[in-house]
Amino acid sequence: MNVDFINPFVASISNILVSMAQLECQRGKPYVKADQKMLGSVTGLIPMVGDDVHGSLAISFSTSTIVRIASNMLGEDIHELDDSCQDLTGEITNMLSGGARKLLWQNGYNFEMAQPKILMEPELEHLVKVPVIVIPFTTEPGEFFIEVALGKRLPKAKLLG
User: Fold this and answer.
1) DSSP letters along 45-82, please?
2) What are the tens digits of pLDDT across the range 13-65?
3) Strand, helix or coil at 154?
4) How far apart are alpha carbons 81 and 155 in whole angstroms?
5) Is 105 in contact with 12 (CB distance < 8 Å)?
6) Closest Cα partner for 104 from 39, 148, 136, 143?
7) Pairing of strands 133-138, 143-152
8) Which of 38, 64, 75, 104 sits a CA distance of 20 to 30 A from 157?
């Protein structure tokens, strides 16, 4: 996968966490995901459709990470994975996709993104059957993962008639 697609997500999540949750993150080495197992306790999944490519973006948080992010962002002591953590996962997914979309647009890529879906299931199925690139991150309270699955968009079939 082209680094032009990866770097906007890295820059966006770093900015979100520092500015809104006062939390630094360190990026690990990207890798290709081997299965459909969810990497965190809660995941936000959002479709991405563009002129030339389509796919999906997911961000998965460990329980300790999303609980700390929620505590910092909401200004209250949260001790477990609750509804506010799930809601915040959706908001972070929206902010991440919006920030990355802006940076991708500046690089000549145009995407539309829909509402995120929040998952707490053991498996995560992306919207396209392509290799899924995982970007792991570590923070002081734990880890989280961004998954990007993008494939070439197929041309619309012509109607026969």
Assistant:
1) EEEEEESSEEEEEEEEE-HHHHHHHHHHHHTS---S--
2) 999 999 999 999 999 999 999 999 999 999 999 888 877 678 888 999 999 99
3) coil
4) 42
5) no
6) 148
7) antiparallel
8) 104
State the helix-helix crossing angle for 3-21 and 63-74, rounded to 10 degrees. 50
pLDDT recorded at residue 40: 94
3-state DSSP call for residue 10?
Answer: helix
What is the band of 157 on the pLDDT scale with cuts at 50, 70, 90?
A: very low
H/E element holding 137? Answer: strand 133-138
Residues 6+ apart with CB under 8 A from 145: 39, 40, 58, 59, 60, 134, 135, 136, 137
Q: Delineate the domains of the chain, giving CATH numbers in brackets.
A: 3-151 (3.40.1550.10)
Structural element, H or E, at residue 147? strand 143-152
Which secondary-structure segment (H or E) carries 15? helix 3-21
DSSP-derived secondary structure for 17-41? HHHHH----EE---EE--S-B-SSS
Q: How far apart are CA 141 and CA 138, in angstroms?
A: 8
The token duo for 23 is: 């939390």
